[in-house]
Amino acid sequence: MEKxxxxxxxxxxxxxxxxxxxxxxxxxxxxxxxxxxxxxxxxGIVDMIPSFCALLINYDSRIISYRxxxxxxxxxxxxDVAASKQKVRVFQIPTCYGGEYGPDIGFISExxxxxxQEVIDIHTSRDxxxxxxxxxxxxxxxxxxxxxxxTPRLETPRxxxxxxxxxxxxxxxxxYPLDSPGGWQLLGLTPVKTYDPNRAVPILYNAGDxxxxxxxxxxxxxxxxxxxxxxxxxxxxIEKEA
Length: 242
What we know:
The chain is of the alpha+beta class. The protein has helices at residues 24-40, 66-78, 105-112, 116-123, 218-230, and strands at 5-8, 13-17, 45-50, 54-59, 87-97, 128-133, 140-143, 158-161, 165-169, 172-175, 180-182, 185-189, 210-215, 237-241. The chain has two domains: 5-83, Gyrase A, domain 2 (2-Layer Sandwich), CATH 3.30.1360.40; 87-241, Beta Barrel (Cyclophilin). The two termini are 18 Å apart.
């Protein structure tokens, strides 16, 4: 593993840059380091924002200096934290595929030379690592999409995509948490609110967690949507070793 590089980011943030490669091993190192930093309870740290290959840490410069936080983080980064076994959460995301719920599934299947059900079976066959959250609150960038269903973005993005839409863009898949413009190819829709500002914890999951999509019928979709709206639905997850 290449050594972590440190850079000041303004007057109250420090950027930790890891090997420039999108890989589970790199992301696992970042996720494990975030856990370790939280356990250390370093006074002055305000927020930590992980990405594919980097970690931005915002701190209160009135409480801790750049030199001090750099020194403490450098020590922690030297530890082989990724080697320790950690439990991760795998969120089960019920998804209704095709039709009005996934208007681009026909294009995805035709391009791949597969039936729509084969596309669905492939998409629901694995756990996807959440590399990072970004673009908007709770938007998950997921790794591990099967190459058979890699699909380029739309040539012209949509003005509005419904919150809960599940899409593909090149080799990534993800969930739009809110209504927004976007250019991903849509193959399904989940009734689960992955971001809800009224929840105690607004974003359902964290970087380093996993998502598994579960195919449901339209009837199931409508029933879960009703439970979500009344506050009686709870998204299920399982734990496994990373």
